[in-house]
Structures are given as structure tokens and as C-alpha cells.
Amino acid sequence: MKSSRVHYASLMSSLLFAISALIFFAAGFILGLSALIALLQGNRAAAQASVLFGAMSFLGSILLIATVVAFMKYLNKPAVEVSVPTSASIWQIGAGAIGAGLALLLGGLIQDNNNINWLFLPVLTIPAVTLPIWVVTGMGVKNLPLDSRWRTWSILGISLTLAPFILFVLEFLIVVFIVLFVVIYALASPELMVEFQRLSSQLMFIDPESEAAMQILAPYLTRPGVVFVFLTVFSVFIPVIEELIKPLGVWLFAGKLNSTAQGFAFGALSGAGFALIETFNVSGQTAEWSGLLFSRIGTGTLHITT
Q1: I need a surface site. Which of 11, 52, 89, 165 has the fewest CB within 10 A?
Q2: What is the pLDDT of residues 193-251, one digit of tens each?
Q3: From CA 186, how far away is CA 181, in angstroms rounded?
Q4: What global pTM score does this model have?
Q5: Are 133 and 103 in contact, with CB atoms under 8 Å apart?
Q6: Strand partners, 83
């Protein structure tokens, strides 16, 4: 009976990863097509779209591997029961760090060259994103026990699919709740409603990202109540939710863990997957490519270690 449950979970995991992989591949195809169109039109957006094309394709490929491994577990293939080694040598870690540095350096040199950045940045983005995450994860879980291939790939796959999706839904619901609260509060206060109408009429014909718009909004955004709400939501609620959802795969396999050390290793792996998808999603900002990806190393480290 226990084996049946495990097989059922593996089948569901393989379906989740397969559907997610198809979504990433479809997004990559659309982005690749838009990159080609932009390139033919001589548009700078060609580089942005081509970088995201490479990123989505890479994520889809990872999930494709996770799909195969999970389905092999469903079929009771013994190969997926082999433990995943975590004994990366200092030379391997050093080589990864050097490779990441070279990718960032080369990318920084060509990121503003519209003649070649669309071609080379997608290739350089893969090592520039993955190698720092691999280095930090490798140092964090060095010689710690992971588990079988299927469980390791399942936890990584969950951190790339289900965990970000649930987090997005929860953050969206928080925003909806805040908007509804503001609307209800405004409806209960005629004076505030009039003020909102006046504010909307002022912003109607102004670029929301312009300095003029910020000057209009500044008196409202700096009110103590507004500042308190923003700090509470973005400094308390969202970080707490993120830290709870990020290791979702670990929570799902909590009953199967052999030790706290293994839980830590899987937590680091979950953080690595979360950092991977988060960094790839912003990698298309080619104008700030090298600086952005370099700064994301710190963010990725926090995801992996917390």
C-alpha cells in the first residue's frame, strides 16, 4: 500500500513537471519568435527576447529531466534509487566560480553591442546564472546526504513549479485584499473618495513612471499609514510567506527525511531552484545584464542559505 502511494506521487509529479516544461518551452518558442521579428526590424528588444528564450528553454529542459526521473520512479526503475553525490571538490567549485566570473565579464563587454548581444548573451546567461547557484549550493551541501535521484529531482522540480506558483497566488491575493480594503474604506469616506477621483484625473494623462507622477503621489505614499502598510506587507508578510513556501518540496517529503542534515540539504536545493527561476526571469534586462546578474548572486545565496 505504501509503494502504491509513492508511485501515485511520482506519477503526479511527472505530470506536473511535464506540463510545466511544456509551458516553459511554449514561452521560449514565443520569445524566440519575437526575438527573430525584433532582430529583422533592428530592434534592441531582440537581445531581451533572445535571452529569455534561452532561459525558458533551459528551465524547460531541467523540468523535462525531472519528468523523466519521476516517471521512471513510477515504473519502479532501480536507476532512480541511486543516491545523488554531494562531494564536489574544491577544484570543481573553484572552476564553477571562475566560469561564472568569465561569463559575467564577457557578457558585460557585449551587453550594449546590439550587433552581437542577441546571439551571445543567451549562451552566457546560462553559466552566469547557474554556476554561482551551483557553487553556493555545492559548498552548502558538501558531504551532506541528499537522497535518491527521483526524490532530489522532485524537490528541485517542485521548487521550479509548484512553489513559485503558490507564492504568486498568495502574493496576488494579498494585493487584491489591500485593494479591496482601500476601496471599501474609500467608499465609506466621501471625502476620501473625492480625493481619489481628483488624484485619478491628475494621473490620467501623465506617464505613471514620470517624475511628475511621483511628485503627485509622494504626499500620499509618505503618509504614516501608507508607509506602515507597505512595510508590514513587504517586510513581514511576503518574506514570511516566501520562506514558508520556498521549501515546499521539503515539507512534502518531511516524513521521508532520514536526518536534519538531509532536511538542510534539501532546503538548500529548494532555495537553489527558487533562485534559479527568479534570476532567469529577470535576466532579460540586457541593458543592466552583468550588474543585475552579479547582484543576484547575493540574493541567490540568501535563498539557498535561509
Answers
A1: 89
A2: 777 777 777 777 777 667 777 777 777 778 787 788 888 888 888 889 999 999 999 99
A3: 8
A4: 0.88
A5: no
A6: 148
